[in-house]
Specification:
alpha/beta
Length: 350
């Protein structure tokens, strides 16, 4: 397997960070009065290597795939919903479609492998890695080849986006059963029982959540000898769309685009990206604290402070899209506010 994800990430420009920090000290406001918005602007300036950062050019990539683990009764919805939602994405009816239009961002929908493979669907990039993953209760979810191609799908999405000038990337996912896959991945890495991280996903009741946790624990036990590192865990417990998100976050750091991370599933993917290449962490912002129980634990493992807390659990990249205006406004305030000298306003007493 070509370990492209181990290649160096774009360096953080400390000179640009210092220039941005000095500008913040000169703006017409008490130092630190804009709180985390100041830190966002300074970090973005350091990443982009300029003291006037910009996050106007947004690309949203939605990765879709089905999961064999659904055969164990871990979802409240049938797998036919995955393909149906692809049509909804490109038709403009999904939440992320509405948000992309409002934010004037480009939207790309990528079908990596669904059970009910659609006929050619204009507007959807179809990669056909398989009819969903295998049931990871009994075998590895993916082959090594499938995992490699899924990671590459995320990388290639970022390459296309950067060719079009993307400065900010929002990744989203669609795949019935993917909260179960994300829970298994998080449990393996955080070394905790599934009952601590399992949640309702698409709407399971308490009995359904308990059943999901038992399935995850059984799978972790079955494959404990075979899964020795994060890459193997991704192969055995992941999904096509989760692996694509991992690849996308790694490529963002290598190609120089800020990644705004969505909810539980995307945050688990971000955690695995950091495991594969720790330097990619600098290129991540975290959008929101979601309603899934495991999300807070994964955010803590990443030392991440989410921007919003709206009790969201939709996925699709929707929570990240909602946070885009905050990042843009942080840059606008940094770039366009007057300095004390420009506004002829007295600075602090000397």
């Amino acid at each position: 397997m070509n370990a492209w994800w181990q290649q160096a990430c774009q360096a953080v420009n400390e000179d640009a960070r210092e220039q941005a920090h000095m500008r913040q000290l000169q703006l017409t406001k008490p130092t630190g009065s804009l709180g985390r918005l100041e830190a966002i602007a300074i970090q973005t300036a350091a990443l982009q290597g300029r003291d006037r950062p910009s996050l106007d050019k947004l690309h949203i990539g939605i990765f879709a795939g089905d999961h064999g683990i659904v055969a164990e009764g871990v979802s409240a919805y049938p797998q036919s919903v995955t393909v149906q939602m692809l049509s909804n994405f490109i038709g403009g009816g999904a939440a992320i479609s509405v948000l992309a239009a409002q934010l004037q961002g480009s939207l790309e929908v990528i079908d990596l492998g669904t059970v009910q493979s659609p006929q050619v669907m204009p507007g959807v990039r179809q990669l056909h890695l398989g009819q969903g993953t295998a049931n990871f209760l009994h075998q590895a979810a993916m082959t090594e080849v499938q995992l490699e191609r899924a990671l590459e799908a995320g990388r290639d999405c970022i390459a296309r986006a950067r060719q079009n000038g993307c400065e900010l990337f929002v990744g989203g996912e669609m795949g019935i059963g993917n909260t179960t896959a994300a829970t298994a991945l998080a449990c393996w890495l955080l070394k905790c029982p599934a009952k601590e991280l399992s949640g309702p996903g698409t709407g399971l009741d308490s009995n359904g959540v308990e059943h999901k946790a038992r399935v995850v624990d059984a799978a972790l036990h079955t494959h404990s000898a075979a899964v020795s590192d994060a890459l193997k865990a991704l192969q055995y417990f992941g999904g096509f769309e989760v692996a694509a998100l991992v690849g996308a976050y790694l490529a963002c750091a290598q190609e120089g685009a800020v990644a705004l991370v969505d909810g539980f599933i995307c945050t688990v993917a971000a955690l695995y990206a950091v495991q594969l290449n720790p330097d990619c962490r600098s290129w991540m912002q975290f959008a929101h604290q979601g309603a899934e129980p495991g999300h807070q634990r994964v955010l803590k493992a990443l030392d991440a402070q989410p921007l919003l807390d709206l009790n969201l659990r939709l996925g699709e990249g929707s929570g990240a899209a909602l946070a885009v205006p905050l990042l843009r406004l942080a840059c606008a305030l940094h770039n366009d506010m007057a300095t004390f000298a420009e506004a002829a306003v007295a600075d602090r007493a000397q």
